[in-house]
Structures are given as structure tokens and as C-alpha cells.
Write a structure and sequence with these properties.
With about 600 residues, this protein is an alpha/beta fold. It has 3 domains: about 1-50 and about 290-370, no CATH class; about 65-280, no CATH class; about 400-600, Alpha-Beta Plaits (2-Layer Sandwich). The longest helix is centred in the middle third of the chain and has 33 residues, at about 345-380.
């Protein structure tokens, strides 16, 4: 038992250490080389964030931001071709400033002057309106080595316009998905950071580009928005832009500024992505990745949970624990996300799933080993045809749990063998005894009986347990007949042929009634047994055959349970049996008489009854 316990502990610890170690390695590759070929589960981890957005659902758009969309409605209402002239943008800026816009964030790049004399006039008008507004932030994607963005008129033009520049690019994840907002790119603050700084008059605290997720309020179209044409034509609700950050940009699909993001299946226009990023910075980056040590602890705890629990729990409870832990982790991860904390999802859950599968597999492996051990144990007691039925009724620790069944109990005893054995060398005694027990055991198992124990040269067997048999009494009588008429004469013949003895008699007692059968003992040693008054009476009947005319005594209860009375069934007498208040009627068969025994002794016997 101690060795099996050590094996169990070692196996489950190995499962926990292996699966947890693999999960930690995978998580480490995600931290060291995100998005690379080594980051096997990085895509799944990122996708889990998208799913958490979907579960959280759409939220109210920020009141302080309005998106002005250059969309299909704009082209339809203005009848102008893209790109619009600078004077068109100048008029829109003038209208927005007049409407009280706090910051005008233009997600359109103005890096090159317009060609021709007319172009110079348009650019000057554009720059004058920027200067007059004094609240512009422009997006650029061209940055030099000094961290200076390219803008109309260079740094002097930017100063004249009293405008600011922000890098309009994003770091994208595999698949081109935008999930994070950078603090700066190429030495230039991001468009979102520059816009938030202009709106608040404060410089945002620097943050790591790879950890700050954009807190999307919803899928594309969630942000408060209005077509650019309505701004240009001055046809918008009064107060719409007052004290607001106004993000202007291309939203029409034909302008190709649409990108996949964390929230929703549809691609989101660039200005709306910028608006979500600006809101994220303004609200102090509400989505924060938990410290790495938290994820490491989760991986270790979930990785060892089921293997360690399996040391105490069985397969079913281990499975229930795994399902419950997975459910709790899923709910906890989402609740944390709803409150602004982003917990690693794939790696802790992967550790839990892998270790749970490993623990379940270990349970099955141990069960297989145990079944083989049970098979080995019970194949010594019962016929092979009964072993599978016994296995189906046992649990993993070999305890049958005290099954109460009506059975027929058999006790046998070899007359005079103890005295005989004193005159022989021990090896010869064991050889003789083994030959006798093998003959009798074959007869018992051959008739579906269960061998309970050997007691020197005595045998205890039971018919009808641990597997119920309707004809257990008939089987017991048939086995006794074969033992007396075939097996014992054959063994006696062998003794005579080897000049060891003239032969022996044996007594058999059979009694039928309720018995409690099962495995008993300690954790270190188990033994199958059948106990009860029925067993005691059968033992006493066997002892009563000494000095009688028949070698087999069967009780009246056994005769009553016979489905077919033997042709040579005979009534012996009523006897007082110790432990019984009433006399017991005793029966036997003519084949078990002393006279029949003597006849068989005179002739060789072989075959079966």
C-alpha cells in the first residue's frame, strides 16, 4: 500500500510540475518575444481581450469627444472630390472654433504645400484659421530622426499655426488589429497623447507602449459623430461642440482608413479609433495589465490545483473541481476586466486545462493498474468469467463494502493429513498439499464458486457471492460431488502411485443462508471473506461428518434452495448443532457415503463428474 501511495503522489506531482512548467515557459515566451514565432499562444491571449470587450458590452460614449466623419454623406452633400482643398478644411475649423470646440484634433496629414499660386492662397487661409483657432492638433506619420513630425511650413509653420503634432500611427498586433495606444512613436508623442495634453494643459505621464490597451467604448459607430459636411455647412445642433474635443478624419471605406480593433467584427474608422485612444488617455488609462507576478501565481496555483487535489479526490470529484475552477476563473477574469484589470487568460487557463487532463489521465492510469491488481487478486478466488463482474462492483481501493447475499457456504477438511505430514520432509508435505488443494480448487472454481481461504488442509468457499447466483445451492452440491467422486480419488491414486499413502478421506459441510461478504483487513493487507451464522453452521456441519456414514453433510436450508434434487439425495437425521436452538435436518448424497468411497479407492478414477 505504501508503494502505491508513493506512486500516486509521484504521478500527480509529475503531472502538476510538467503542465505548470510548460505553461510558465509559454508565458515567458509571450513576455520575451510577443508576436514572434516563439509566442505560440500570444494570438489567443490577445483574442481573449477582444472576447472580454464583447462580454462587457457597449458603454456610453464619452461626453467630451465628438467625431466629425468625412463619410459618404459628406461626399453626397458637398459634391466635392477628395482630397478637399485647404480652404474647405479652413472653413470647417472656423465653424468648429465658433461653436466652442475646446480642441480640434485633425486626423488628416498636412505635410506638403498645395501647388500653384492658388494653392499658396489656400494654404495661407488654412494656416490663418489654424492660428486664429489656436487649439489644433494634427496627425502625422512622417517623423525625422529628431522626433519632429512633417507639417506644412515645417516647424516654423507649426509654430505660426499655434498647432501641435502627434504621431498618428499605432503598433498593431498580428492580423493588423489595433488594441493598444502608444505614448510615443519615433520620438514623437502619439496623436492621442498630444490631444489629451492640449485638452488638459498637462503632459500625460509616460507609459509603456505595449501594455496600455485602448478602452474601446463599443464597436464602430459608438462614438458621438456627425458628417463633416454638416460642420462645413454649419448645420449642426447648437452646443454640440462646446468644450468638446473634436476629432476630424476620414471614415468613408473608400478612403481606406479603417482597421480591425478589439471591439466588434466590423472595422473601425481611423478617427474613431483615435477618439477611443484619446478617451483612454484622458481617463488615466483605465485598462491596466495586472503585475506579472499575479499571472505567475495564477499559473502555478491553477496548474497544481487538480493534481494536488487528486491525492484526496476521486476521478469524478477531480473533474467537478476542474470545471468549477475553470468557471470561477472565467467569471473572475471578466469581473476584473470590468473593473479595469486585465488578467492573463490563456496561460493560467491553459495550465488548469492541461493539468486537469493530466490528472484525469493519471486517475485512469492508476485505475488501470488497480484493475489489474484486482484481477490478479480475484482470479485466485473466483472463476475468470466472474472476475469482470467483480471488477464492475469494486471501487479503486478494492473494498467490496460488505455485500449481503443469500449464498451457500462450503467447508472442507482432510482427515488425518496432519499426522501424515509429520513423517515426511517439509518439501514433500508441501508438494502433497499443493496437489490436493489444486484438485479441490479447480472443482470449486469450475462450478462458479469463490475460494475464500485455505486453512492448512481445509478449504472455505462460498457459492453465490460476491456475484449473485440463483442456483448457488446446486453449484455447491455439484462441486462437493466432484471433489468426493473425482478429485479426491485421483489425488489418492497419485499418493499410492508414489508410495506415500493409501489415501485419505475428507469431510464437507454445506449450509445456505444470508452471508455478508467483502474485503476486510488493513490498508497493507486485504482479504476476501464471508461471515455470519450461515458460515459458522457450515463449519460445524463439516466437523460433524467425522465418524459418520457420509462424507458430505448439507443442511435442510441448502436442500430447500436446490432447484433440482439430486437422484441420490438421502436424509441422514436431525442433529443438534452448536449455536442453533433447533435441531438441524441433515442431508447427503449416496455418492458421498463411506461405501461409495471405498469402491472408488479400489479403482483408478479420471475425468470429471
Amino acid at each position: 500500500m505504501a508503494s502505491r501511495t508513493r506512486l500516486r503522489v509521484a504521478l500527480f506531482l509529475a503531472v502538476g510540475m510538467t503542465t505548470t512548467g510548460l505553461a510558465l515557459l509559454a508565458y515567458g515566451s509571450h513576455l520575451i518575444a510577443p508576436g514572434s514565432g516563439w509566442d505560440i499562444f500570444g494570438g489567443a491571449e490577445l483574442s481573449s481581450i477582444d472576447r472580454r470587450f464583447a462580454i462587457r458590452g457597449q458603454e456610453k460614449p464619452p461626453k467630451e469627444i465628438v467625431v466629425v466623419k468625412i463619410d459618404d454623406t459628406t461626399f453626397s452633400e458637398l459634391g466635392k472630390r477628395w482630397p478637399f482643398t485647404r480652404t474647405v478644411h479652413a472653413k470647417a475649423i472656423k465653424n468648429l472654433k465658433a461653436a466652442g470646440a475646446k480642441v480640434i484634433a485633425y486626423d488628416i496629414q498636412f505635410s506638403e504645400p498645395t501647388e500653384g499660386r492658388q494653392g499658396i492662397v489656400q494654404d495661407n487661409t488654412f494656416m490663418d484659421e489654424n492660428r486664429a483657432a489656436g487649439n489644433l492638433v494634427f496627425s502625422t506619420t512622417e517623423v525625422n530622426d529628431k522626433g519632429e513630425g512633417k507639417f506644412l511650413g515645417g516647424q516654423q509653420g507649426l509654430a505660426y499655426a499655434r498647432a501641435r503634432l502627434g504621431n498618428g500611427n499605432f503598433d498593431t498586433d498580428p492580423g493588423g488589429i489595433i488594441r493598444r495606444t502608444p505614448y510615443e512613436l519615433q520620438g514623437l508623442k502619439s496623436f492621442a497623447v498630444a490631444t489629451a495634453g492640449r485638452a488638459t494643459g498637462k503632459t500625460a505621464h509616460a507609459f509603456s507602449n505595449d501594455t496600455k490597451l485602448i478602452d474601446f467604448t463599443g464597436p464602430a459607430g459608438t462614438m458621438t459623430s456627425i458628417p463633416f459636411s454638416r460642420v462645413y455647412l454649419n448645420r449642426f445642433p447648437r452646443g454640440l461642440f462646446r468644450d468638446k474635443i473634436v476629432v476630424v478624419g476620414a471614415s468613408a471605406p473608400s478612403l481606406q482608413d479603417v482597421h480591425p480593433v478589439s471591439f466588434g467584427r466590423d472595422e473601425m474608422p481611423g478617427p474613431e479609433i483615435q477618439a477611443n485612444a484619446i478617451a483612454t488617455v484622458l481617463h488615466d488609462l483605465p485598462l491596466t495589465l495586472v503585475p506579472r507576478w499575479v499571472n505567475l501565481v495564477l499559473i502555478i496555483v491553477l496548474g497544481f490545483l487538480c493534481p494536488l487535489a487528486s491525492l484526496r479526490l476521486n476521478l469524478l470529484w477531480t473533474l467537478m473541481l476542474a470545471i468549477g475552477a475553470a468557471g470561477a476563473f472565467l467569471v473572475g477574469t471578466q469581473i476584473a476586466f470590468d473593473h479595469g484589470w486585465v488578467i492573463s487568460f490563456v496561460y493560467p487557463l491553459g495550465a488548469l486545462v492541461a493539468s486537469s487532463v493530466g490528472a484525469i489521465a493519471a486517475h485512469y492510469l492508476l485505475a488501470a493498474f488497480e484493475r489489474e491488481r484486482v484481477r490478479d487478486v480475484f482470479s485466485r478466488f473466483v472463476p475468470e468469467t466472474v472476475v469482470e463482474q467483480v471488477l464492475s462492483r469494486t471501487d479503486s481501493d478494492l473494498r467490496l463494502g460488505g455485500v449481503s447475499l443469500e449464498s451457500t457456504v462450503m467447508f472442507t477438511d482432510l482427515r488425518g493429513f496432519t499426522t501424515f505430514s509429520e513423517a515426511l520432509p517439509p518439501p514433500r508435505v508441501i508438494e502433497c498439499l499443493n496437489g490436493y488443494l489444486e484438485q479441490m480448487t479447480d472443482a470449486i472454481l469450475g462450478h462458479g464458486g469463490t475460494l475464500v481461504s485455505y486453512e492448512g488442509d481445509g478449504i472455505m468457499a462460498v457459492f453465490g457471492a460476491p456475484i449473485e447466483q440463483a442456483d448457488h445451492a446446486d453449484r455447491a452440491v455439484a462441486a462437493a460431488r466432484e471433489m468426493l467422486t473425482v478429485r479426491l480419488p485421483n489425488w489418492n491414486r497419485w499418493l499410492r502411485d508414489n508410495e506415500l499413502s493409501d489415501g485419505f478421506k475428507m469431510g464437507i459441510g454445506l449450509n445456505t443462508g444470508m452471508v455478508v461478504s467483502g474485503n476486510v483487513g488493513s490498508e497493507r493487507r486485504l482479504e476476501y471473506t464471508a461471515i455470519g451464522d450461515t458460515t459458522n453452521t457450515a463449519s460445524r456441519l463439516q466437523g460433524m461428518t467425522k465418524g459418520q456414514s457420509h462424507l458430505l453433510f448439507l443442511s435442510d436450508t441448502t436442500r430447500e434452495r436446490l432447484q433440482r434434487d439430486p437422484d441420490d439425495l438421502v436424509f441422514i437425521d436431525e442433529f443438534e448443532v452448536r449455536g442453533r436452538q433447533q435441531p438441524v435436518k441433515i442431508w447427503s448424497i449416496e455418492a458421498a457415503s463411506d461405501a461409495a468411497f471405498e469402491e472408488r479407492q479400489a479403482a483408478p478414477v479420471s475425468g470429471s463428474a
